[in-house]
Every structure is written in structure tokens, then in C-alpha cells.
Amino acid sequence: MVDNESWALRHVELQGPDPQPVAAAAPSKVLGIRDQREQPAMAVCQHTYGILIEGGLDGRQDTQSATEITAAEFERIWHSAREALAPEGG
Q1: Range from 2-11, 45-54, 78-87 carrying the lowest mean pLDDT
Q2: Superkingdom of this entry's organism (predicted)?
Q3: Which of 7, 24, 29, 87 is deepest in the core (most CB within 10 A)?
Q4: Residue 46: CB partners within 8 Å, gap ≥ 6?
Q5: Assigned domain for 71 exists
Q6: Quick check: is 52 in a domain?
């Protein structure tokens, strides 16, 4: 999901023949933790959900691995990926 300037707001990455989530990153979550100076919590969050790339996405949508989907499909995949990547009981 991107903003009006093509900067990523949230990122989902799926891999494999039966696509499984390997990342579901959101900078707003990490920045909130960082602003509270919770370095260990930030590291856990990044390890669990991945790291969102920095910079605009212009040109990256043309890569082989990029797929355009509807907003509703993104939301479905996003929530499913976050749930799958969440630690047990978290």
C-alpha cells in the first residue's frame, strides 16, 4: 500500500509455490516503538514482521515479483500475513 507520493505505507511479501507470508511491515508501528526508545522491542518487531524498504516505489512496480491487487485484496492478505507472522499468543 502506497501514499500519494509512491512511498510504502505497508508491505506484504509472500514467497513459495503456495505463497506464504515472510514479511508484513508497517513503518508506523516501528516508528512508534522507536520513538519510545524501545530498541529491543523494535528489533523484535522488525525480526517478526520484516523491514519496510525506504524510499519511493516508482519503477519497482515493474519488477517480476510485484503484483498489482485491489485494496480489498491487500487488506485481506495483510491481516492474514500479520496473523501468520505473529508470535504464539501475541
Answers
A1: 2-11
A2: Bacteria
A3: 24
A4: 25, 30
A5: yes
A6: yes
Contact between 10 and 78 (Cβ < 8 Å) = yes
| Domain contains 45 | yes
The residue type of 30 is V
What DSSP element (H or E) covers 82?
helix 71-85
DSSP-derived secondary structure for 20-59: EEEEEE-HHHHHHHHHTT-HHHHHHHHHHH--PPPSB-TT
Instruction: Give a yes or no: residue 3 inside a domain.
Output: no
- pTM of the full predicted structure? 0.71
Domain extent at residue 64 = 11-85
Cell numbers 485481506: residue:
76
What length is written for the chain?
Answer: 90
Which residues share a beta bridge with 14? Answer: 21
The Cα–Cα gap between 89 and 9 comes to 26
